[in-house]
Structures are given as C-alpha cells and as structure tokens.
Amino acid sequence: MLSKYKFSFRPIARKFVRSLVTSHGIWEVREAIILRLTDTTGKVGWGEIAPISWFGSETLAQALYFCRQLPEEITQETIFSIPDDLPACQFGFESALEAMGNGEDVTITNAQFSALLPAGEAALHQWRRLWEEGYRTFKWKIAVGEISEELRIFDLLTQNLPTSAKLRLDANGGLSYPEAHLWLQACDNLPVEVEFIEQPLPVEQFSQMLELSEAYPTAIALDESVANLKQLATCYAQGWRDVFVVKPAIAGSPSRLRQFCQQHKIDAVFSSVFETAIARKASLQLAAELSRDNRAVGFGVNHFFYQEAENWLQSLWNNP
Ligand SMILES: O=C(O)CCC(=O)C1=CC=C[C@@H](O)[C@@H]1C(=O)O
Ligand SMILES: [Mg+2]
Questions:
Q1: Least enclosed by CB within 10 Å: which of 14, 71, 152, 172?
Q2: Ligand 1 atom at minimum distance from 170 CA
Q3: What is the pLDDT of residue 23?
Q4: Do residues 164 and 185 share a domain?
Q5: Tell me, what's the pLDDT at 294?
Q6: Would the ipTM clear 0.95, i.e. be above it?
Q7: CATH number for the domain harbouring residue 286
Q8: Is 247 noted as a catalytic residue in this protein?
Q9: Residue 223 annotated as lining a ligand binding site
Q10: Active-site residue, selected from the candidate residues 141, 166, 230, 281
Q11: Distance between CA atoms of 36 and 75, rounded to whole angstroms?
C-alpha cells in the first residue's frame, strides 16, 4: 500500500540584510514556501520550495498554485510525478520525504565554503573579515558596473588577497564576448588563483562559452545554463566538461540529480539559492555526496540574512 502523508505549507518572505546586486538586477526579498509532510506514525519531514524564476525555475506563483491544488493527504506517487517544469517543487517535496529519514547534518568548516562578496568596491572592504572567519574561497559578482572600473577593483583585490585564497568571478551572463576575453586575459599570471569565471555569457551563447573554456587556463563554470536537470543533461550532451554550478533547490528531483552526477562524474560546484536552513541542509547533504575535486560549496551566504530565530519554523504553524 502506498504511504500517505498529511501535507501542509506556508509561504514565507525574508528581506535580505543587504540587497543582492547582480547583472540580473537588485534582489531585495527572498520568498519561498515551507512545506511539512507527516506520515501515519507522526514522523515529520520539512521541505522548502525556493524558486528563482529569472534563473529558469517556476515562479513562486506557479509553486503556490501547485501546492494549493494538492489534497491535504498525498502519496509518494504524487511527489514523484511532479512535472519537470516545477523543479523547485520537485526538490521541496522529495527532500521533505528524504528528511523523514533524519539524514545527519553535514558538518562543513568555513574553509570548505565559498563566501559571496558584495559587488563593486565594497568587496575590497569585506573580504578580510570573512578571511578572519575562516573562509578561503570568495565569489565576486562582475558585469554589474563598468568593466574598466571592475577590472581596476579586481586588480586591487587580487593584489591584496592572501596568495592561498581562491577567487570566483560570477558574471550572471552579463558580459559581451569581447569582455569575456578581457576578463579571462586579466585572470592570467595573478598572485591568487581565479578558480573559474561563472556564466560569463548569456545562456544562448553556449558555443562561445565552450570555445572560451578551451582557449584559456582559467576554467569556465556554467550556472544559468545548467539551472535544471534538463539543461544539465543538454550541456553535458553538447560536450561541456568544465565546471557545472549545481543549485540543488532549483535543479529538480534530488534522486535524479544524484543519478546524473554519479553517472557522468561531472565537476560540480554546489551553490545556494539563498534558502532557509531547511533547503540548506538538504542541499549540503547532496553536496557532501556528489562534490568532486573538493571544490568549496557556494553556501557562504548566511551573512545576507538576519540569523533566523530558532523557533521561527514552529511559529509558521502556530497560527493556522
Ligand atoms: O554560489 C554561490 O557562491 C552563492 C549563491 C549565488 O552566488 C547565487 C545564488 C542565486 C542567484 C545568484 O544571485 C547567484 C549566482 O548566480 O550564483
Ligand atoms: Mg552564478
């Protein structure tokens, strides 16, 4: 007999402490849906649906509509038949199911996280505190300001970072092809390692990124191009063997993601979607299982939010 689960959910909205500026624009509030599954023995599994529609996942409205049309009691079949155009829902429901297995919390030191630096000149003033907190890998957003100004800041940053630091640049698809060449040339022969340039060009310029990945020593990481399982498989089939940024919470079914990463042994860097502790735990468990070449995980973003009150989750269900 198929297991049945009582299902309930709550939409949430949390304001960033400091808005997130990328080439996609300014992100002020992180909205998501927290869901709870309770099995017939009373065991509870928490899940989180955290869409990023401008990354190619469903919208929050589509996820809310899906949750609202579900009955109060669902089965595993309900969960494993969530359509592929709802990847954040696939992740949220399936990881709630897996959470009932009470997977251990993954212990990761700050040295294994990548810390996200603010865009622009502010990065020059932020990295030291994070270094003192134990971070050794830093990600900096580019293609936000004017390229000559960003290259000037980049020069100062690479001259001031300790030589054992690693730096990731994330353009969010905002560079032109000539600008991508300029950045890759600027990454050569530096005192610190530029681990990769993330999504230098828009998704539709895959062939140019494939060419760049073969033309320079600095690696290229696809992110927006591989946001969900279908895109991951497509880029792999088209010959991508450089770095894949995997955002588990919007990629889709965790079991299918696990199968893809294990089958193809991709060079994956796991990345946050600015989720709460619920999706963070599920994502870090996948990262611990599937990361290769001990790449730092892009979850050093908790300084973008106020620390969550311990009992905030329960309070969501206190006032039905
Ligand atoms: O990957 C990381 O290091 C942190 C998360 C991060 O950079 C992002 C999360 C979600 C959307 C984007 O703004 C951004 C990214 O493009 O990777
Ligand atoms: Mg990115």
A1: 71
A2: 16
A3: 81
A4: yes
A5: 79
A6: yes
A7: 3.20.20.120
A8: yes
A9: yes
A10: 141
A11: 13
